[in-house]
Write a structure and sequence with these properties.
heterodimer, A: mainly beta, Sulfite Oxidase, Chain A, domain 2, five-stranded mixed sheet, 3 helices, 11 strands, 8% helix, globular, B: alpha/beta, Elongation Factor Tu (Ef-tu), domain 3, Rossmann fold, six-stranded antiparallel sheet
């Protein structure tokens, strides 16, 4: 840390709206839009080609197609999201199926401690299993009442809103439960293995 | 694949020079207190602190070559309603200091492989310029060409430095006497510039990058050889 450095002539103008001050993690700024950041081309997945699989250290590997996924119980997340590129979107909502609901069917084995999420197109990200359970994560197909747009990961993306948003893998198709942490795409490319925005865990070693 | 140099802590850099690249973009030449190695394509995080302790961070691509060992350069496109870019463009000048950390990113980096096609839209040229400059300084034998799309001549960064290795396209208006009418990149432009078995680096606004990545797929590039970096406030 730099202790006391002041940027000459800087006063700032993106302070969060009144009443939302406590909702911005360190180093984040308030963004009213929904920026798009993706590695490589934007995937085009039709719902009739869409599948979601939960495998690895589970009692039953389970695979859903779009129709069987739509038949699962649904819940909504109301709150904030934080991107490692510094923007935070406050007061948004997503709905879909909680990861708890998926794991209820797959039944994790006791030694499962980590999850590697894989997307159509091959993107991967790793998340501790504890960060995906107890109502903290979803496979979301709806954003603010509308089908999730393709550029935001539609038809469905992982949603782990308490971690930086690269963990919320767009176009997710597989959750693999593992005993050991296996780093995903950004985690191998300089980004933090867990990514807690409140601890500002942006990069490897933060 | 070699690992890219990883990020170090915050430090104060001296702004040793600053100059406009276009009416709305400025390059800052920064001398680091504790220099680090980096690869072309990596970026830095800049942190501004107000007198009341309020801080703002943003990321900026490095424009200079790692072979330029004495300082790094970042080019900042001024966003009209931005918080940090107007400060960097309008307020900060040579003799000031700037807090930053880097180098960041291990994906959109050039490690010397070839052949390489660079496609930049607007200020998306910045990290590509680091690659172009580094190739000129260290690896002139690596085949490399650039397609650069800008709205008007006034939006073109590094105009005096782009040579035969860069092809320019104007989407709104070209310079006086420019032979082509204004237009966007076409499938034929990308197909003509494509290298079989090459890497492609694409950087620019989201819509531009999406469109170019699709054109590269059509031109036969597999997705894993299309490296993208998307810019833009929304």
């Amino acid at each position: 840390m730099s202790g006391g450095f002041i940027s000459r002539g800087f006063f700032g103008k993106r302070r969060p709206p009144e009443g939302m001050e406590g909702r911005l993690p360190p180093g984040q700024y308030y963004e009213s839009g929904f920026p798009v950041l993706t590695v490589g081309p934007t995937e085009k997945i039709e719902t009739d080609a869409w599948t979601l699989r939960v495998d690895g250290l589970v009692e039953h590997a389970v695979e859903w197609n779009w129709n069987s996924f739509q038949a699962l119980p649904r819940t909504t997340y109301e709150g904030d999201i934080h991107c490692v590129t510094k923007w935070s979107k406050l007061g948004t909502n997503f709905s879909g199926v909680s990861v708890d609901e998926l794991l209820k069917l797959a039944q994790p084995q006791p030694e499962a401690k980590y999850v590697l999420a894989t997307s159509f197109g091959g993107y991967t990200t790793n998340v501790p299993l504890a960060d995906l359970v107890d109502g903290k994560a979803w496979v979301a197909d709806t954003h603010e009442g509308q089908p999730l747009p393709r550029e935001h990961g539609g038809p469905a993306r992982l949603l782990v809103p308490h971690l930086y948003f690269w963990k919320s893998a767009k176009w997710v198709t597989k959750l693999t439960l593992l005993a050991e942490d296996e780093w995903g795409f950004w985690e191998r490319n300089g980004y933090h293995h867990r990514g807690d925005p409140w601890k500002e865990q942006r990069y490897t070693g933060d | 694949m070699t690992d890219a140099p990883s990020v170090t802590g915050w430090q104060i850099a001296d702004v040793v020079a600053a100059w406009p690249e276009t009416p709305t973009a400025k390059t800052l030449r920064l001398k680091l207190a504790e220099p680090w190695p980096f690869l072309p394509g990596q970026h830095v995080d800049v942190r501004l602190t107000a007198p009341d302790g309020y801080q703002a961070q943003r990321s900026y691509s490095i424009a200079s070559s790692p072979a330029d060992a004495h300082a790094i350069e970042i080019t900042v496109q001024r966003l009209e309603d931005g918080e940090v870019s107007p400060y960097l463009c309008d307020v900060l000048e040579a003799g000031d200091q700037l807090e930053l950390r880097g180098p960041i990113g291990g994906y959109f980096v050039w490690r010397g492989e070839g052949p390489v096609l660079l496609i930049g839209g607007g200020s998306g040229l910045v990290p590509l310029m680091s690659i172009l400059r580094h190739r000129r300084l260290t690896a002139p034998d690596v085949p490399m060409r650039a397609l650069v799309s800008v709205r008007t001549p006034g939006d073109l960064l590094y105009a005096g430095e782009l040579g035969d290795d860069a092809r320019l396209l104007y989407t709104r208006a070209g310079p006086p006497g420019w032979a082509e009418p204004p237009r966007r990149l076409t499938p034929a432009d990308v197909a003509d510039a494509a290298y079989p078995d090459g890497l492609a680096f694409v950087c620019g606004p989201t819509g531009f990058v999406d469109r170019v990545a699709d054109l590269l797929l059509q031109a036969g590039y597999p997705a894993e050889r299309i490296l993208t970096e998307r810019f833009g406030p929304t």
